[in-house]
Amino acid sequence: MSFSEITARVRYAETDQMGVVYHAHYYVYFEIGRVELMRTRGVAYKEMEERDDAYIVVAESHCRHLQPARYDDLLRIRTRVAEARRRTIRFAYEILNDSNGELLATGETLHVICNREGRPKALPDKYRELFPVSEHGGAEPER
Fold first, then answer.
1. When you count CB atoms within 10 A of the terminal residue's CB, does the N or C end of the chain come out lower?
2. Which residues of 1-35 are buried (b: 16+ CB within 10 A; e: fewer)?
């Protein structure tokens, strides 16, 4: 499956005294990748929320740290839809050092589609078409 990609530079504020990215910032990088993937598919979070009463709520998150990212590194954030179901979407991520291609971290987030009151609901059809489900239960690759 192909990934959506975007780059981001590690800022000083994201690092500890050793110049290493603090672990919680990887979830911010995941969000950057997820928003960009959605944008490339013509979806804006704000429109989903305002027009369709559809909020993408994080239900699970996981990050495996393989190598440290450091201050001023240019990161390549790769994001794909790993699974899309009626009420949930699972995104998968890879964070790489853009200069040498080294894989720094991998992760996943599972999101439940909810209304304003936080109750689960089905993803509206117009969005479901953007995250088709394959025969194997995962999302179809991007074309």
1. C
2. eebbbbebebeeebbeeeeebeeebbbebbbbbbb
Residue 18: which residues within 8 A CB-CB, separation 6 or more?
none
- CB neighbour list of residue 60: distance below 8 Å, 6 or more residues apart: 108, 109, 110
Calculate Rg over the CA atoms of the chain.
16
Cα(78)–Cα(112) distance, rounded to whole angstroms? 21
Minimal CA–CA distance to 121: which of 57, 39, 51, 43? 57
Q: Select from 82, 124, 138, 73 the least CA-distant residue to 107.
A: 82
24-38, 95-109, 120-134: which has the minimum mean pLDDT?
120-134
* CATH code matching the domain that covers 4-128, chosen among 3.40.640.10, 3.40.250.10, 3.50.20.20, 3.10.129.10: 3.10.129.10
pLDDT (average), residues 8-37: 96
Task: State both tokens at 121.
Answer: 């609901």
CB neighbour list of residue 37: distance below 8 Å, 6 or more residues apart: 4, 79, 80, 81, 91
